[in-house]
Amino acid sequence: MVSNSPLELSQGAKMKLKHNINPVLLQFINFIILVYTVVTYIPWYIFSGSRQAIAKSKQVKARPVNNRPGGAYRSVNSLHCLASVLYPGCDTLDKVFKYAKTKYKDKKLLGTREILKEEDEIQPSGKVFKKVILGKYTWLSYEDVYIKAVNFGNGLAVLGQQPKTNIAIFCETRAEWMIAAQACFMCNYQLVTLYATLGGAAIVHGLNETEVTTIITSKELMQTKLKEIVSQIPRLRHIITVDGKPTTWSEFPKGVIVHTMASVQAMGAKADSGNKQQARPVPSDIAVIMYTSGSTGIPKGVMISHCNIIAGITGMAERIPNLGEKDIYIGYLPLAHVLELSAELVCLSHGCRIGYSSPQTLADQSSKIKKGSKGDVTTLKPTLMAAVPEIMDRIYKNVMNKVNEMTSFQRNLFILAYNYKMEQISKGYTTPLCDSLIFRKVRMLLGGKIRILLCGGAPLSAATQRFMNICFCCPVGQGYGLTESAGAGTITEVWDYTTGRVGAPLVCCEIKLLNWEEGGYYNTDKPYPRGEILIGGQNVTVGYYKNEGRTRKDFTIDENGQRWLHTGDIGEFHQDGCLKIIDRKKDLVKLQAGEYVSLGKVEAALKNLPLVDNICAYASSFHSYVIGFVVPNQKELAELARKKGFKGTWEEICNSSEMEKEVLKVLAEAAMAANLEKFEIPVKIRLSPDPWTPETGLVTDAFKLKRKELTAYYQKDIDRMYGTNVK
After folding, report:
1. Rg value, the chain, Cα
2. What is the pTM of this model?
3. Would the N or C end of the chain have less CB density within 10 A of its end CB?
4. What angle separates helix 657-673 from helix 599-606, to the nearest 10 degrees?
5. Strands (E), 319-440
6. pLDDT of residue 727
7. Which of 617, 575, 578 is nearest to 600 (CA)?
8. Which residues have CB under 8 Å from 193's CB, separation 6+?
């Protein structure tokens, strides 16, 4: 496998590196490594559990339940029966939380950092950025959260909310989001979740389609987004802010009442809850209607039942060894995303603490953290963290930029340690000396205590995965799942350090591969069966809200009554039962000459270049070549322009046809190194001076590309690059 990582050296590059280091120094380094290895290896091997870990990494993780082509694969831990509940009798989410509250009563559960100071910081460009200085985390116990949730649920009933009716939450990730969710689970209200970064039209669509009369939000979102669209939501009667004081605006339609979460909880505390037992949910009741981030158009509402979510988190929890009260999880991804909601429910059900953060305050260098003060990971020191590939790619590139700025000696020492550790972990060994001396500063970027990183939402590049394994000194559990499968599908085991794979099926589900003739993928292929990935199990959701046609298309039921989700992703099963995602039906485009191009494959091969912050490949059946839109790394492109003697503003550099050609040369070299076919390599590109963020509407909250929106945004450039008006 060819990597774009400058740290992973070929044998020739290693020899060149050795010549660049003083021979005496090189001998000394090699001697120290040899002595250290000899002295520590035997006791470490005996007492560290490495022998067992190596054995586990080589074991078969999943097997087909029958020997027929296309037979479903199951985890070896659930060959005869799929898992569906975390704890006996806890078959709904309210029972799971009550069990956890009873078991972990006074233990800390939800943590929030206090804001000590806010100030405006004027940038050299004249822009004003909000900066904050944050204090310590303050915590609510399991008992505290339970009482707040009970009171809030009862208060919603006072406002007229009925069981099995919809209520929306449109709010940033925070403790109040989880409290509101637990209240809805207890009272059998169907929680409609919407991303805080959705555009106005998407928000209006979700709220009107679900006919909600009450929405839970933050004061900031109410003052900005909701205020502009509230007149387009005719059924809305109550807005509940999780923060701030009760207030109204004259612009709000008559009849819409604004409450605070605290005031609703106060109503609930006084209310008679004697008949609340009748409202308790059953496993098949809908817990969440989760609106997707709309990567392919209008957001769809996925109906997820209590038993769907419980089955999913049961499977996820089984892949996290020693999960319990000592763990601290940092929550910063959108709770409206199934990855974050599932991860937090796994933690809540196992006695873990959840400390809340945001992408703007996560690290010391984050955009809202005042220089010299601490980001959330530094203060919280989490042991568990979930991330999407885009965030991991950013961390990787930031660290690589710092490595490139090191002195020659420091950089060479880092590369030697990196490659030494890569060889060791591939054999199942650890490198405590390198971890403490070389990688300690890198590890501190995430607080220094992370023991497992869970990555989901999109494929993670092999180079980034290896980098996180090595420099953050912890396994990266790459997972695969969809909103439609309650987030569950596969997760790699912690002792599996292979890259490019997403692990074996979780114990809650089974996976089979369906032939896709158009793409040339068959479950009889050798050496590995290939095809469209179908997920079956109790975690497979009910379908799409008010969209029976799409539900019938994406979900099927077999002769045994098993419900299957057709994912649209193409995978292959390896001999040990682990799945690898190799293509996607929607990303496959047939060129004019008949060749098939996987746009995702092209993007994955080029995304990790230091020069590229983001990339979207585009192809048309009316043309014979691939083009691309590239968000360049500002520092790298500016340096390339300087070397080529090109002067101008950032916009002028990006709009320069000369610089487009220079970047194309870099992309072509990387594409050939990654073994892309000639017809897969972009022939023309457009450099974008502006980054793609969820706020721009060009990527989802999980930073997946919105191809439809990107195509519309760059339509003039597409016409220019193809020399035609045909889309």
Report:
1. 26
2. 0.84
3. N
4. 100
5. 328-331, 353-356, 384-387
6. 37
7. 617
8. 168, 169, 288, 289, 290, 291, 335, 336, 341
End-to-end CA distance of the chain: 35
Q: Residue 2: what pLDDT?
A: 35
- Alpha-carbon distance values, 446 to 133, 363, 366, 392, 569 (Å): 18, 7, 12, 11, 32
Q: Which two tokens stand for residue 386?
A: 């979930």
State how beta strands 563-573 and 579-584 pair: antiparallel
Sequence-ordered list of residues with C-beta below 8 angstroms from that of 44, at least 6 positions apart, any chain = 50, 430, 432
The segments of the chain whose pLDDT lies below 70 read 1-57, 124-125, 246-251, 272-278, 293-297, 724-727
The residue extents of the domains of the chain are 11-25+61-67+388-584, 93-356, 591-722
Q: Which fold has domain 93-356?
A: Rossmann fold (3.40.50)
Q: Do domains 93-356 and 591-722 have the same CATH topology?
A: no
Residue indicated by tokens 């794979």:
501
3-state secondary structure of 401: helix
Backbone angles phi, psi at 50, to 5 degrees: -60, -40
d(C-alpha 72, C-alpha 577), whole Å: 11
pLDDT in tens, 9-31: 444 344 344 445 566 666 666 66
| φ, ψ (nearest 5 deg) of residue 503 | 90, -175
Burial of 334 (0-12, 13-18, 19+ CB in 10 A): buried
Residue carrying structure tokens 């002295």: 39
**pLDDT at 449 (0 to 100):** 95
Contacts of 507 (CB under 8 A, 6+ apart): 75, 77, 78, 82, 83, 314, 315, 318
Tell me, what's the pLDDT at 16? Answer: 40
User: What per-residue confidence (pLDDT) applies to 15?
Assistant: 38
For 591-722, which CATH class?
alpha beta
CATH superfamily of this structure's domain 11-25+61-67+388-584:
Luciferase; Domain 3 (2.30.38.10)
Tokens of 389: 């590939």
pLDDT of res. 85: 96
